[in-house]
Design goal:
Layout: E1 2-9, E2 18-21, H1 37-48, H2 50-53, E3 70-76, H3 85-88, E4 97-103, E5 116-119, E6 125-128
Antiparallel strand pairs: 1-2, 1-3, 3-4, 4-5, 5-6
């Protein structure tokens, strides 16, 4: 599965609904410090990694704690659909795409609750962050250790 779109609202520096479209080619995230590069990568990991999902979203990451947050990732499954039964069991939104949205509930009476995971738009399958998602066993996650040593003698 390839990510074709990411939407973020009220997380990190993303106050308003921010949409990032990816065309399936190699993508690189660049920008100044504080613009949300690490936040985007964390949110992708949050959606895809059951260990991280179970930890929830840290309140410090939420832009405005009085408002709901949203992470929406659309995957293009065109290359994988014929080979993977777990993908076939998920609701396709259009053109071989699967939408996963994690959002919080927020209004004047309710504080931020556990994030709710919804897969699909019209035909929706709802999960909580502690449940296993249908594709959790099929995704290879690569962890990169951020602790490195540099040789400044040049």
């Amino acid at each position: 599965m390839k990510i074709s779109k990411i939407e973020i609202k009220n997380i990190g520096p993303f106050k308003d609904n921010t949409v990032i479209e990816l065309d399936g080619k190699i993508s690189t995230i660049i920008g100044e410090n504080g613009t949300g590069k690490s936040t985007i990568l964390f949110l992708i990991r949050f959606v895809l990694d059951p260990k991280i999902r179970k930890l929830g979203i840290n309140e410090n990451l939420i832009y405005d704690i009085s408002k709901a947050f949203k992470i929406k990732i659309v995957f293009n499954t065109e290359d994988n659909k014929n080979n993977n039964a777990h993908i076939n069991s998920l609701p396709i939104i259009e053109n071989n795409k699967i939408m996963i949205e994690i959002s919080s509930l927020k209004n004047d009476e309710i504080n931020i609750q556990e994030p709710i995971i919804v897969i699909g738009e019209i035909e929706k399958i709802q999960y909580n962050i502690f449940q296993k998602l249908p594709f959790d066993d099929y995704i290879d996650l690569i962890y990169i250790n951020s602790q490195y040593e540099s040789n400044d003698e040049m």
